Amino acid sequence: MEEIYKKIISMSFLKKLISVAILAVLFLGISSICLQAQPDDLKKEKGENLYFQAKEMFVYPVPKFDEIIIILGKSIPYFRKIENKQLSNYWLAEVAYLKGIVEKERNNHEMAENNFSFCKKLINDSLDIGDSSEGYRLLADVEGQLISYHNLYYKTKFGPRIKNFIEKAIELDYSNQKSYISLAMYYRDAPLIAGGSFKKSEAVLKKMIDVTHSDRIDLFSLYLWINTAWINSNYNQEKVKESIALLNLFSNQADIDYMAKRIKKNM
Fold it and tell me: 186: Cβ–Cβ under 8 A, 6 or more apart, which residues?
């Protein structure tokens, strides 16, 4: 009887020991995951801080383009070291896109096109790993930029895809404000045969305001809206006025007036 009791005690101890071992393994596994995640979060945060600093500088009344490019360059090593390749490629694509916008603004069109092409490659690499709303939105935006650097064949082949990419972005995140702005720009500039219409553009902006519960538009989106309005209308002032008039839906009219004046000076 005593031997049986000892065996029971021994088995009970063994079970406890196994349970403790399992918990230890789980704890170490979770700790390892957390330790792996923390460096990525830190790199992403440092890279983002530099990226958003550069983006904010771009919308200044007198942007210092050389400084912006230097700051964007400093963000690249942080984004490259992110182990999550989908996330790494997405942020590197955002940097390449903003560098393209900067070079386009200062009429370095060859460098602008190179950056946009690199952005397209990076964001496609990111989307090959997994879908993301911001990924498809960025792919649509950069394709819209690249179209202006290519011939009619390229525009016919890739132009219709822009709308598909934006719709996919909205499908993945119904509240993605930037995607609605991109879709409104598509309808504003697309030819009638491709569904282009100022009324559709306005309807998309109204829907965005209803969905996001925000009637303000950020300065960078304003830059893209007004700058592309000039370029895609072949610098037709009347068409540009119509495009800017669509922005009457937003409450921050002072920002809209500021950006319209800033861009007009450079035209």
Answer: 140, 144, 162, 163, 166, 196
The two structure tokens encoding residue 194: 């491709």
Instruction: Tell me the domain boundaries of the chain.
Output: 41-130
**Phi (first) and psi of residue 25, to 5 degrees:** -65, -45
Q: Which long-range contacts (CB under 8 A, 24 or more apart) does 74-81 make?
A: 74/50, 75/46, 75/47, 75/48, 75/50, 75/51, 76/47, 78/43, 78/44, 78/46, 78/47, 78/50, 79/43, 79/44, 79/47, 81/43
Q: What is the mean pLDDT of residues 241-258?
A: 97
Quick one: average pLDDT of 91-115? 97
**Any idea which residue has 């809209």 for tokens?**
256
In the block, tokens 């940097």 appear at: 95
Neighbouring CB atoms inside 10 A of 41's CB total 10
8-state DSSP, 84: -
Q: How far is CA 226 from CA 181, 185, 221, 240, in A?
A: 12, 10, 9, 7
Q: What is the pTM of this model?
A: 0.84
Any idea how long the chain is? 267
The answer on pLDDT for 184 being more than 90 is: yes
Closest CA to 58 of 113, 107, 108, 103: 103
What pLDDT does 266 receive?
79
